[in-house]
């Protein structure tokens, strides 16, 4: 199928939808641990309460990918899935900050993450479908830039609301700060509208008549989709298999960071472990600021990486970024006060986050057959969520015994794991698949 060369503006427009998708993920990263603790959760239980994302990603993304590969809807192969997913995501974000109890918030996160995953996987495949191979680096790294921008805004929204006069200590009936509630409402508005913008500005290409006929002749339904997933797993390209080891350490480490950064800042900067204290609420706002900064770094870095990735190769750029993040994770727990020094480790973490959301997909898109882009993008998400599931199950077992029950030691562990991920990506051998 002929793919027209897209302008920079078109590549930007087709990725605007990622702003809404990743704003939702940013809200979760910044707020779900403190929300859970405000509703009564204990520190060691946090990984289990975060299981919704990994489990729904494991189940939903490969299935949606396989289904979308065979879809012949008049709106396109991918569009129906990410429009419906974005709408459900908006509804979940609206309800989350009004959760009356811990069980309600935990259950709602399962619905929210399922909706996010319905949207996410076809969106990855949409970029791969729409762009020529020589534009993959620009497409996926622009997507990574929108991830950085969206999560910058998601992290900073509560602090901005406080800056403009809202009371940071004003609480809802369930004990959740009002500024957090408003941030989720903003996310709900962005989730659907940004995806709709991308669909309108850069619609999917119509399939050629022979490809349409081939797809319509294929069996439909969940059964054939599951069979396609199994077939694709058995025939997985070697490059994709090698990326699995990198993903294991990379995503285990990032989950450690997201879950335990607020408790770490509360302990190291504000000297408190009490989730109901003013110091803990200050740590939530501080995490919004440093998290917003590292996502801003990711936003700029992802664009800046494009020429380096084209010239040096995605794996070398990604390895450098992961080593920078590993150093940042080790520096972070030793900083005991607010100030500019706290933002220094975030430069490395931001470089890695900008690369994580772009460069592995550059490596992947160049190694998979185009007609199976959906199912392989979905399977690649298994390389993300399986490490998250392993983290959720194993970290509570070592939290007290090996890590001393201290959140700052979890951050140090994350640094070790990201360094191992950097070593693994350097061992990936790339090859093209037409």
Automatic annotation (TrEMBL):
The annotated topology with respect to the bilayer is: Multi-pass membrane protein
Q: Which Pfam families match?
A: MFS_1 (PF07690)
Q: Which UniProt keywords apply?
A: Membrane, Transmembrane, Transmembrane helix, Transport
Task: Report if keyword Transmembrane is assigned.
Answer: yes
* Cell location: Membrane
Classify the main location.
membrane
Q: Where are the transmembrane segments?
A: 48-67, 79-96, 176-199, 243-270, 290-309, 316-335, 341-363, 375-398, 410-428
Q: What is this protein called?
A: MFS transporter
